[in-house]
Amino acid sequence: MSVNRAAEIRRMFDGLVPRYDLLNRLMSLGKDVRWRRWTAAALAPRGALTLDVGTGTGDLALALRRQGARLVIGLDFAPQMLAEARRKAEARGLDGIAWALGDALHLPFPDDTFDCVVSAFVLRNLVDLPAGLAEMARVLRPGGRLACLDMTHPPEGPFGHLYRFYLRRLVPLLAGLVGGDMSAYHYLADSLQDFPNAQTLAALLESLGLTDVQVRLLGGGVVALHLARKPSPRGHGCDYLARRERGREPSGDDMRPRCRF
Ligand SMILES: C[S@@+](CC[C@H](N)C(=O)[O-])C[C@H]1O[C@@H](n2cnc3c(N)ncnc32)[C@H](O)[C@@H]1O
Predict the structure, then answer these.
(1) Counting atoms of ligand 1 from 1, which one is nearest the CA of 52?
(2) Which has more confidence, 101 or 182?
(3) 92 lies in which domain range?
(4) Distances from the Cα of 220 to the Cαs of 95, 106, 153, 204, in angstroms?
(5) Which of 35, 107, 168, 210 is the residue whose CA sits 20 to 30 A from 248?
């Protein structure tokens, strides 16, 4: 891993804070808010201890808490991003969220800790993607759920061409117009270049031992939500766990792992 590269990325995000939320709204035509809300809803986080990796200005952490997560920890390695997240939560009077300065590649938590682990628009920025995903899987408790929302490669055809043009040429211009850092928004298109497509990312999650991997394409196929589950110790499916948690003795039929989000 390149320590310098990670430091550059951290500095870049810290510098983006003043215009970050505004540019997200403009670039996605306001859809990014809905995508994070759907991500939170897909996890059904009511009562869950939840980790938001690369929380940035905290929008997903806030959405998870609003949807009933018991405690959300928003982790990021960029202190200015975290300061903005904290300010937002306080301004909205939201408690039950803790902010942690830390590295996604070395999560400062024991194995099997969280009911849910999420990330939004973070994976492309990791200097070692498999290591980052392995860390997320490590801190997830058996039976716990993972959700990763990120940009993905646009479909082939006219829409794909148009979208690539939009990302390469118009987004940096837009960033310049609102007083943002144009070079950082050139980086946005570059960060997608070597990023695996949605299918390969799903295979990577499976290779880490996660199960029930699902992919949902959003925004006409330019954003992907990956959902997965960490298997429970004796190979019992989540139906088994859910019934046991409700106090009912599981039947043989419950033992088949057939959980779906
Ligand atoms: C594009 S922003 C996404 C922020 C937020 N999740 C959202 O939905 O808007 C990517 C975030 O990931 C953070 N990040 C990137 N690499 C990281 C790492 N190795 N450890 C912790 N945070 C990281 C950046 O500091 C930045 O805040």
Answers:
(1) 6
(2) 101
(3) 3-18+30-153+195-230
(4) 35, 34, 11, 23
(5) 210
